[in-house]
Amino acid sequence: MVNVCIVVLDAVRAANLSCYGHSRPTTPNIDSVADESVVFERAISPAPVTLDSTASLFTGLYPGDHRAGQRGTLDVDVPHLPELLADAGHETGAVTTNPFVTPGFGFDQGVDRFDAVEHRFERGMNVRKFFNEHKHLPSHRRYLSFLRASLDRNFLSHVGNGLQFRFELFGADDDNGATETTRAATRFFDDASEPWFLYAHYSEAHMKDVRHLYKLPRADRYRFVDEDRVDDVGVQQHPDGEYPADSMDVHERLYDGSIRYLDRHVGRLVDDLKERGEWDDTLFAITADHGECLGEYGAMGHGHLYEPGVRVPLVVKPPAEMDEDPGRRDGRVNTLGLYATVAELVGADADHAQVPSVFADHEHVLTQDYSGSWSWSRYGDDTAGQHALYVDDLKLIRQGESVELYDTTEEEFEAGPPLSDHPRREELVETMDAYLDSFDESTESIDRIDVDESASQRLEDLGYL
């Protein structure tokens, strides 16, 4: 029996890893793993947002069928990935820092040990929400109102959350949870009986509403850029209008620093498994839930179907018993195929999976975004779902009646403007229609989600509430 470890680097796009040709040395440890792995040059996430893409990885279903974002939870009648492993005799664990990938959103099904890393006082109020609701007041009155609202038995927790909100205090080792995630992962390795399965989710590359966008130790934050330059150009999370080229360059350098920091944690997991003598018997996959736009196409962050938002790394180190030779593969694949990959490895039934193993040919690749219909989220705006279909080197992006066709030949991003006239345009539109007709359109979006104060605070920090 083999072990399985899936490492997800939140909001990390493939183009910024050095093993994918990036000019800065962002991923020396991942590069070393890549040397003994299958590296998929053109891997696409099934969705450009965490909740839907991770739900796809856990179920083997496209977002169009599980509709986790609209339901507000992962609730479909198929075995979750950890359940497949548990039924095959694996001890299962999950360690996450993203508030979506938690038991509250239905991701604990089949997980023996779930560590959702926290960064605040559980009993304290959602301070960001409080101040947003009182932003119409003068500054001194906002603080006075906060103190008055804090005068109850949880006073110390309220004040602690206030200090964290204002000064970013009490964070774990001055990062966004990576240190504790790695500790929890190695504790799982200590305690688990072989064979085991671990899902580990890191969030340092996800933009936060804090100074300089990424929460990292100082040396890592400014690894690729001087602090003075960051202050001078005014890097922003949500710039108004077109992002100036200088700001975009500095922003990407900060982003690269976060990836380099994550790479160090991946290296620690790899070293730990090697020291235990378990590396050779472990399928070790490194990927991302989605990519990130840093000003390209006038887009910032994720929730976009352009290449920076959905093209992600996929590095799969096969176990010794698996008949897959290391090397680079340039065929396009959907990372949702990891579900079938793992199922085949352990001999589990995954007939419901809508995408084959990443080692199989993917004739078409589909990615979907329904976040505009998340009425419980600030993302929600009643817009039609967006879909992108890849066929050969063509990419069709569709939202309602709006259609854009791009050439993606050997490009990190879309090559040039949309193709206004192409002989295969109608063929791709018909293929897209066939996919969309196959999905269940009956799901109604909920108006609110019920999460505890901790999850609410973290979702708000990440811009979802």
Which helices and strands, and how do they pair?
Layout: E1 3-9, H1 28-35, E2 38-44, H2 50-59, H3 63-66, H4 68-71, H5 81-87, E3 91-96, E4 113-116, H6 127-133, H7 139-149, H8 155-167, H9 178-191, E5 196-202, H10 218-221, H11 227-233, H12 245-275, E6 282-287, E7 293-294, E8 300-301, H13 307-310, E9 311-312, E10 314-317, E11 327-334, H14 338-346, E12 364-369, E13 386-391, E14 394-399, E15 402-407, H15 425-437, H16 453-461
Parallel strand pairs: 1-5, 1-6, 2-11, 3-4, 3-5
Antiparallel strand pairs: 2-9, 2-10, 6-10, 7-8, 12-13, 13-14, 14-15
Describe this structure in words.
It is a single chain. By secondary structure, the chain is of the alpha/beta class. It folds into two domains: 3-119 and 173-363, Alkaline Phosphatase, subunit A (3-Layer(aba) Sandwich); 123-170, no CATH class. The protein is built from 16 helices and 15 strands. The protein has helices at residues 28-35, 50-59, 63-66, 68-71, 81-87, 127-133, 139-149, 155-167, 178-191, 218-221, 227-233, 245-275, 307-310, 338-346, 425-437, 453-461, and strands spanning 3-9, 38-44, 91-96, 113-116, 196-202, 282-287, 293-294, 300-301, 311-312, 314-317, 327-334, 364-369, 386-391, 394-399, 402-407. The strands form three sheets. Strands 1, 2, 3, 4, 5, 6, 9, 10 and 11 form a nine-stranded mixed sheet that branches. Strands 12-13-14-15 form a four-stranded antiparallel sheet, with helices on one face. A hairpin with a 2-residue loop joins β13 (386-391) and β14 (394-399). α1 packs across α12 and α9 (178-191) runs parallel beside α12. The model has no long low-confidence stretch (mean pLDDT 85).
